[in-house]
Amino acid sequence: MSKYITTPIYYVNGEAHIGHAYTTFIADTMARYERLKGEKTYFLTGTDEHGQKIEESAIKNNKPTQEFADEISATFKNLWDEFEISYDQFIRTTDAKHKKGVQKAFEVMFAKGDIYKDFYEGHYCVSCETFFPETQLVDSEFCPDCGRTTSIVKEESYFFKLSKYEDKLLKFYEENPDFVLPRSRGNEVINFVKSGLRDLSVTRTSFKWGVPMPESLNDDKHVMYVWLDALMNYVTALGYGDDEALMDFWPASTHFVGKDILRFHAIYWPAFLMSLDLPLPKTIAAHGWWTRDGEKMSKSKGNVVSPKEVADAYGVENLRYFMLREVPFGQDGDFSQRAFIDRINSELSNDLGNLLNRIIGMSGKYSDFEIDSIDVEKYHSKELESMNTALSNLDEFMKNVQTHRYLDELWKLFSIGNKAIEEYAPWTKMKEGKKDEALATVALVANILAKASIMLHPIMPKTTNTIADALNFEINNESFKNLVENKQLLKTFIIKKVPPLFPRVEEPLMPEAPKAEPTKTENDCKKDEPKKEEDNLIEIGQFFETSLKIGTIVEAQEVKKSKKLLKLQVDLGEEKPRQIVAGIKEFYSPEDLVGTQACVVANLKPAKLMGMMSEGMLLAAKDEDGLCLVRPQKPKKAGTPVG
Ligand code: MSP
Asked: Are residues 370 and 494 in contact, defined by beta-carbon separation less than 8 angstroms?
């Protein structure tokens, strides 16, 4: 069966922000994943251009509405093109073809008796383009969704008989428990419908910027309600009401939406489709909202994250990885440069990038960049088994849009690869003359990298193509089938050097968001209160001013006449070891220390302790049980930076 994947269509009253980029990244990932699996896939995105909000924004910008819509729509399209979003169609609701389809749908619903004319008086929120009953208003005045002031609007309107579909909808939800993902959000929808549905006003007479009524109704006072117009994009893009050549892709497999527009997609949209006798979409997947450094983003605060700015600074694929890894689908997520940099450095640069570099390095050194997989099964059946288990878990995670779990599981592969190198130490095997064993480990890891890059491809398409290029194979449906589904190994590799894929990021590459003015509270007047951790936060740059390194303790002596001090010689990978005087005598004897490693502050100003020069400090943790040095979990080269 074919796959049809959509993003919401974005309002053209402002440029794209990180929330828009997130939905687009997930939808793009899903579309690429389906294509990789060989599914016939159609991916739609676009812009939502009608309604009072857009009309008002155009007036504010002193532009004719269409010209304004053209400009903003182009900024979305250009950004998605720059990000290489693999959409098949970019629809605009001002396209003639779309308008024709919406009019056709209106006629069909009208002819069926599902649309009738009446009067509407109610509280209307221009920003949400929605009427709200008085009971739902906040303080009898403000919109329950966006908090803006509503106004009372009385107008003649056409109504869609939403109430008629209440029972049918409930039955449908019951029969299709995965219609809304995550499931918990499905319950919200069910409760909303159970609380009773009122008929929906689907036309407006108070402004003109909308799809005109079908000629057959001869009523040009009205234009269509923007949500009827917008939702129809999912079928007009396939030719509904016009040339229906693409309608084979209907029903949609997944509509990706934000949680704020779930109700429109999970209630109105299926009801419209039932009225049109069209099949219902398989899944509405609703994601959470992004904040920045824990705060809601807003233009007035000036803290809106621009996806273009982030991509220019950190690379668009790193951003895709971060967003899909950082939040469980459905939950709200926070964008902070600190968290982003951490993931780049530890997961992309260390776990993946270094592994590839090691394979390039070892294959070059041991066999002139040519390796084969002949001995992999013989020496590494255990690793192959764990690798295959992780690979076979992935599909279920992606099906449920659990991208964070998908990536977490995928990273198990790199950990298997890194562990294998540590455990089998190919350099030792080479010294011992066991070249076939050494090369088997290198080939195992090359296979791990190949398989992992196929599965990472939907999230990081270009980066993984570079990895594939370094390993001399191509990522496509054939390699997916052979290497992932059929668990084959790549027989031979001719390894190519590529520049490091994920250079470490030492400090933030973008200016920090402006800090919200702290509101003064009673507490601000109290003196001498211990500073709370959150009051004492530092910038990441301040953290990186400290140079932390792994040191190997090569000598240790007691300092006579001192109860606390030991004099150590610590190798930090420099010309000669440094002398460090440490207050750890009560907890360690010199013999316990020699040959062990610890984490060292390497850029402390030298100081004299009991007349002895100390050129650094060891990190230690102390509690009621005593003190212990902070050490790497496994041996690292002396001088390896920590951070
Ligand atoms: N035009 C409608 C959608 C019509 S679909 C038939 C619309 N447009 S929007 O531009 O306001 O929002 C588009 C999407 O961006 C929505 O899914 C919304 O949830 C999402 N986001 C807007 N702000 C967001 C965040 N801060 N974080 C994550 N997503 C957010 O609604």
From this structure: yes
Closest ligand 1 atom number to CA of residue 296: 26
Q: How far is CA 583 from the centre of its chain?
A: 45
Choose which residue among 7, 15, 18, 23 to substitute to test ligand 1 binding: the one with the highest number of ligand atoms within 8 A of its C-beta: 23
- Residue for token digits 């491809």? 457
- Ranges under pLDDT 50 in the chain: 518-532, 535
With a Cβ cut-off of 6 Å, ligand 1 is lined by 8-11, 19-20, 22-23, 48, 230-231, 233, 257-258, 260-261, 289-290, 297
Residue nearest to atom 18 of ligand 1 (CA): 258
Per-residue pLDDT at 626: 80
* Distance from C-alpha of 526 to C-alpha of 518, rounded to nearest angstrom: 16
Helix (H) or strand (E) run with residue 193 in it:
helix 183-194
Instruction: Give residue-wise pLDDT tens across range 158-190.
Output: 999 999 999 999 999 999 999 999 998 999 999
Domain 1-94+288-335: which CATH class?
A: alpha beta
CA–CA separation, 160 and 624 (whole Å): 69
HEC assignment per residue over 84-127: CCCCCEEEECCCHHHHHHHHHHHHHHHHCCCEEEEEEEEEEECC
DSSP H or E stretch at residue 70: helix 65-82
CATH code of the domain made up of 336-494: 1.10.730.10
Calpha distance 626→620 (Å, rounded) = 10
Q: What is the 3 state secondary structure string of 350-402?
A: HHHHHHHHHHHHHHHHHHCCEEECCCHHHHHHHHHHHHHHHHHHHHHHHHCCC
Q: Which tokens hold the place of 478?
A: 């054939």
Q: How do residues 523-564 score in pLDDT, each as one tens digit? A: 332 333 333 455 456 666 667 778 899 999 989 998 877 778
Tell me the whole-structure pTM to 2 decimals. Answer: 0.80
**DSSP per position, 596-621:** -EEEEETTPPPEEETTEEE--EE-EE
Rounded Cα distance between 139 and 550, Å, is: 60
Atom 19 of ligand 1: nearest residue by CA position? 258
- From the CB of residue 217, how many other CB atoms can be counted at a distance below 10 Å? 17
Please identify, by atom number, the ligand 1 atom nearest to the C-alpha of residue 257: 17
336-494 matches 1-94+288-335 in CATH topology? no
Domain segments of the chain as ranges: 1-94+288-335, 336-494, 546-642
Does domain 546-642 fall under CATH 3.40.50.2300? My reply is: no
How much distance in Å is there from the Cα of 20 to the middle of ligand 1? 6
Q: For position 541, what pLDDT does the model report? A: 60
pLDDT computed for residue 193 by the predictor: 96
